[in-house]
Amino acid sequence: MPNPIEFYFDFSSPYSYLASEKIEALAARHGRRVQYKPILLGAAFQVAGTRPLVDIPLKGEYSKRDLVRSARFEGVPFALPQPFPVATVGAARAHLWLSDRDPARAQAFVHAAFRAYFAQGRNIAQSDVLEQVLREVGADPTEVLPAIQQPAIKERLRAQVDEALARGVFGAPFMFVDGEPFWGHDRMPQVERWLAEGPF
Amino acid sequence: MPNPIEFYFDFSSPYSYLASEKIEALAARHGRRVQYKPILLGAAFQVAGTRPLVDIPLKGEYSKRDLVRSARFEGVPFALPQPFPVATVGAARAHLWLSDRDPARAQAFVHAAFRAYFAQGRNIAQSDVLEQVLREVGADPTEVLPAIQQPAIKERLRAQVDEALARGVFGAPFMFVDGEPFWGHDRMPQVERWLAEGPF
Prior knowledge:
homodimer; 200 residues; alpha+beta; Glutaredoxin; 10 helices; 4 strands; 55% helix; 9% strand
């Protein structure tokens, strides 16, 4: 069984959303699957000394334009939500909890949460929205929401963030293909060639 | 006559070098030409509060790997030079001086200077190297090198940098197609579609 594509992301990262809409089909074309690994980008930004894109002078203004254009380029429904960015610790923990129990549902949750926020403008940082999204993928919020307040799942997420930092993750999406790092949805053509032809 | 693709760059920007090896063929496929506009990225970094890529923790290490891989992906000869980055004010002024007198030679100079630095490891900040590169494109260094110390050409470069900042340029390569901004060599697929099909 070949290694999965490891896909580190933050639920509040719009370029991660764009990539998430394409990466499974790309992986499948080469007999791979995708292992989603949500992290909290704020921790990575602290290490790298960077900031959320939209807060940076000039770059922030351009990024908003680039995002909507890139979404049209990819054919992915997108509208920059307000507020942006939002806290995604709840969504990330919910994903971890689901992935321990039902990987297919966890994968469906990635897409449902991303689309709720970036296509439908629903604030996934709010517990009522998170509750709805969990229901949409057939999970029981009365089971998940209390569980993600437990120390064990909090520790799992901390460990996943630490693992990402230790592997050099500083932004999102950040993908590893057989250990090779690729940052950004715009590296997907390189990911595809790497999968098709091997290291270049 | 359709508008040229405006191509803002710094002679010390490796992703600009990669793009410069492809942009003219891309433009020609759509009946366009390329207008090269060298700037000094340091000024843009000050406005945007950013730093040279390789100086940023985590991101810097990744960037070195991404650069050599991206060059292989594009089939462009590349080796990260030492020292890096270097001062490019001389090369930028020489380009401006040439472009006022002989646009074809100015264009040849862009490629000769980029290749000298990023493919051949020659430090274009050194005046003897700049002199050689000028000779390689058939320019007379005894005419160009004194001329680029004159106030008029210094002012021209300052104005070009100010123009870039006023248009929101914060990195390189930064391209405008009929006013639409595209940042990064990885936006060339979007540039190509914009040229082929119009705004999307």
